[in-house]
Amino acid sequence: MDNSEIKKKFNSINWNFDFTIDYGRDTLHPFNCRKYYSYPATFIPEIPYAMIEILSQKGDVVLDPFGGIGTTFIQALSLERIPYSFDINPVATNVCKTLYRLFDPSIDKNIIRNKLLQLCEGYDETRDYTMSLSEQRQELRGWFAKKTFNEISFLFYQYDHLQDQIIQNVMKLILSSILVKLSSQNKGWAYIADNVRPKEDELREKHTFEQYTISVKNLLSDVMNHEARLSNSYAAFYYQISHEPRIFEESLVNVPMEAETVDLVITSPPYPRMIDYVKSQRLSFNFFNKNFTDYMGKEIGARYRRSRRDCLPSYEQDINQVNRQISNVLKKGGYFCVVLPDYDATDNRKNVIERIVDGYTNFGMDKVLEIGRYIPSHKRTLSIQWATLVNERIYIFQKG
Questions:
Q1: Is 336 within 8 Å of 398 (Cβ atoms)?
Q2: CB 71 within 8 A of CB 45
Q3: How far apart are the first and last CA of the chain?
Q4: Dist. CA 340–CA 305, nearest whole Å
Q5: Using one digit for the tens of pLDDT, what is the confidence trace for 224-235?
């Protein structure tokens, strides 16, 4: 397909996706990773899904250098492209790895679901399960009402004593996903990032086991329904690609990937001074018995650096370092698709983004197309007025 045909196809799509799509019972459609884990400012799956369909063929290599919870990765997998994902955040990569494992056609999802549901049985409300928590998990105290926290601690106990690795992996995703829902702090990710715990009179008991059960059933049911729509060749494809590492808890810059091996790159990098991806996941870091401060220095464009004088120059330098590596791994003739913020002219971040876009030509890429999109208000994940973004731009480049 030549670039004129590509432009025609791209221009025929409403990239705002501000409408309801009826995919029908049997039609393969985008898999919405965001439904199973709340992660700030993620792709809507329709964007990478459409790009993959238009710009690649089955068997092509598709890479996302800012992979997050795996939205691009899972769309590529579903469409039988060879996926790669990179992200420095272990909470995000855990989601991606677990979903990837669940899409193994050889494992019985009904067995996984039933075993997971059994794990919320046997709770003794007279027992204090919080006493056996690690010091890291004790840090979660204060985010939850007392009874709710004891019930969560029981589920942690069940998780810690699992022998089956796949069951433990999926339970890790489920528990990580429901922590924010069970918390009494319901004002958004920024309050968690800034360690603003609910006040005593704001603590509310939540239905822990009901939420756990709903999350288990939704995830496994949706995976099975999606798997039923995959092509007859999917099982052989999965087996063929599953023997090599594909999801990396690391920056693309630090992984020695072979040059000119990638057919298509699709990503939406962190936006400057917008999100604290690491700090926003502090509850999950505590559950994982990890210290989130060990990862903060690796994060690009973090909101907590917004008052620093070198914030924007550092962001630009970090993004260009990744862009250089993207150009290195991309094949000649391969496509690079990137979604970036479209700031108002009065915002000093606009100049930074424009320089980054202009700089893609320095890395040997030619612009094919540029499309503006607005983010429908009901799909915006940010609740902070100064950080809320209304418009984005989609850029398509081709390596010369």
A1: yes
A2: yes
A3: 16
A4: 19
A5: 999 999 999 999
